């Protein structure tokens, strides 16, 4: 029993050690996954910071939007050759007022060739950046410079200059200028849609900004939900780590208790050791059963943790897919930016050509059609005043939206700071978990050493028990052989004694029958022959024979009668022998039955002796 208990304890301790190693590996994998998730959170936070910075820049550029758009609609006329601060747009608008509208149409055609609806967000962002850029050929960067240019252009348009002589109308030069910019000819009917198209730009920008803000709010909400889920998972993992620590400490304490019990048992004497061994074996079995139940619970917890890890891996895969889609969008936007830059360079080259052509045409046809141009300019100025009033109203709405966006931006900054603090807390918890894992490793090493010592002690005990058991088995085998020999001798004795009893019984029965027959013969001869007794006495005296010998001699005549009686007695004796053999072979108690059989035979022999004695006395 002690040997089997020790073997079971040894195997259970092995299984416990294997399970502890598996749990350790599982915890290490979880630690790696948590570090990867923390890295992903860092990247997510950096991306959010970039988005916030972009929103700041866009909000700063909203103030300049109206002035830049209005500068695109105002037409100016070049009056001086050597004026250093004249802009390219003024030169173009003096010659052809539909240049901006046609430029918008061309840009819309180019955007149709770009990717599908999924990339609209990046395209709108690029459009905003493009609208907020200033001209690289002029110095129109601020509102003050723009207003100065406006005043100069208005003065130059109203006051004619003496330098330029009047020239004839040159329709071919107009056609060349229009073809160089890929626009239609100068006409009053084509000039009308310029204001309507420019007025449609601002609401589209506002809608795009609102969509952008809504998308950012949705992304922030998603990030908050993901952070909450991850914090919950981290809390569950920390709780499970604490539970595993407590279980490991309990196992260590129980192993120490078993060691102390074993040492105390070795110091006690022989009888007390046996008693204590029986008690300790019962207690050890109970402890081992408790350990098995605890190990089952820990294994179930480990399976649950593995399922959670699988779900985390699926979430990571989805995040990687989202990153791939974002990278693809970035590549599309980069391509768009490259194409737009090439277009801008082309437009710059065209503008340079256009300036050269204008200089040439101004030298030839400066004073041609001044009255018609003055009329057209007055009409355009009135229309531009109306459009400026509408733009002012829209600017007020934009400023209100800007204030709302600034408030939202402040909220986003506060949320970002909260996320930073939460991230720092997660890092501290992660460090604590690493320290706890190190302590678990040290405890595991101590357990391994203790298990090795326990294994050596159990092996020594098993060897001693094997030697003792072999000695006892040899002794038992010798005793069994001796008892077998004695039993065989007893069986032989019983069989021989029975044969002798049967033989003597047969002899006594034969002698009785002979004596009775001789007595009957004597009686018959004495009745028939009166001198028969005297003759028998004289014959015995002469021959020196006893009466029995004479009876044997006289009994030769009646052998046939005696043969039948012997057969009957033989059948009875064979039945008795068969009963005795069955009793010896059977596993039941047969001592009483054998005594009955032997007592019957002894009684028969005694009766036969008595009858012989009575017959001889007569």
UniProtKB/TrEMBL annotation:
Residues 31-65, 206-261, 309-493 form a coiled coil. This is Uncharacterized protein. It comes from Rotaria sordida. Keywords: Coiled coil. InterPro entries: CNTLN. Residues 266-287 are annotated as: Disordered. GO terms for biological process: centriole-centriole cohesion. Residues 278-287 have a biased composition (Polar residues). GO terms for cellular component: centriole; centrosome.
């Amino acid at each position: 029993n002690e040997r089997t208990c020790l073997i079971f304890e040894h195997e259970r301790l092995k299984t416990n050690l294997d399970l502890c190693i598996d749990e350790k590996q599982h915890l290490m994998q979880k630690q790696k996954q948590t570090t990867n998730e923390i890295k992903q959170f860092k990247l997510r936070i950096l991306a959010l910071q970039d988005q916030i910075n972009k929103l700041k820049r866009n909000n700063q550029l909203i103030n300049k939007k109206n002035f830049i758009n209005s500068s695109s609609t105002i037409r100016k006329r070049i009056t001086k050759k050597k004026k250093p601060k004249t802009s390219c747009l003024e030169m173009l608008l003096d010659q052809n007022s539909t240049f901006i509208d046609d430029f918008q149409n061309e840009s819309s055609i180019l955007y149709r060739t770009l990717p599908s609806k999924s990339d609209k967000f990046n395209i709108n962002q690029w459009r905003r950046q493009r609208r907020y850029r200033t001209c690289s050929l002029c110095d129109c960067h601020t509102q003050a410079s723009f207003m100065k240019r406006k005043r100069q252009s208005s003065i130059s348009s109203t006051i004619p200059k003496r330098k330029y002589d009047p020239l004839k109308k040159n329709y071919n030069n107009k056609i060349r200028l229009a073809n160089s910019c890929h626009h239609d000819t100068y006409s009053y009917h084509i000039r009308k849609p310029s204001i309507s198209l420019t007025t449609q730009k601002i609401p589209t920008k506002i809608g795009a900004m609102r969509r952008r803000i809504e998308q950012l709010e949705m992304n922030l909400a998603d990030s908050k939900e993901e952070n909450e889920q991850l914090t919950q998972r981290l809390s569950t993992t920390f709780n499970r780590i604490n539970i595993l620590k407590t279980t490991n400490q309990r196992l260590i304490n129980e192993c120490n208790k078993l060691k102390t019990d074993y040492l105390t048992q070795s110091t006690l004497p022989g009888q007390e050791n046996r008693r204590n061994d029986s008690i300790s074996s019962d207690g050890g079995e109970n402890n081992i059963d408790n350990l098995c139940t605890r190990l089952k619970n820990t294994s179930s917890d480990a399976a649950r943790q593995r399922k959670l890890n699988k779900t985390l891996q699926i979430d990571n895969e989805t995040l990687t897919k989202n990153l791939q889609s974002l990278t693809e969008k970035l590549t599309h936007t980069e391509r768009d930016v490259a194409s737009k830059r090439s277009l801008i360079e082309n437009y710059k080259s065209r503008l340079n050509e256009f300036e050269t052509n204008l200089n040439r045409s101004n030298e030839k046809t400066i004073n041609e059609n001044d009255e018609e141009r003055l009329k057209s300019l007055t009409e355009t100025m009135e229309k531009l005043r109306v459009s400026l009033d509408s733009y002012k109203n829209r600017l007020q709405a934009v400023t209100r939206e800007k204030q709302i966006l600034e408030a939202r931006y402040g909220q986003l900054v506060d949320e970002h700071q909260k996320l930073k603090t939460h991230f720092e807390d997660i890092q501290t918890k992660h460090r604590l978990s690493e320290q706890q894992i190190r302590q678990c490793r040290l405890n595991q090493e101590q357990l391994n050493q203790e298990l090795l010592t326990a294994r050596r002690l159990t092996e020594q005990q098993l060897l001693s028990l094997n030697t003792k058991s072999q000695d006892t088995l040899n002794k038992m085998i010798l005793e069994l052989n001796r008892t077998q020999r004695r039993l065989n001798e007893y069986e032989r004795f019983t069989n021989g004694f029975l044969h002798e009893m049967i033989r003597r019984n047969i002899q006594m029965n034969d002698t009785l029958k002979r004596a009775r027959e001789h007595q009957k013969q004597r009686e018959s001869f004495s009745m028939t022959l009166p001198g028969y007794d005297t003759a028998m006495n004289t014959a015995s005296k002469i021959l020196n024979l006893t009466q029995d010998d004479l009876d044997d001699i006289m009994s030769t005549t009646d052998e046939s009668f005696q043969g039948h009686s012997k057969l009957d007695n033989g059948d009875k004796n064979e039945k008795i022998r068969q009963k005795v053999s069955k009793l010896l072979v059977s596993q039941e108690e047969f001592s009483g039955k054998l005594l009955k059989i032997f007592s019957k035979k002894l009684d028969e022999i005694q009766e036969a002796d008595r009858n012989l004695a009575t017959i001889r006395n007569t």
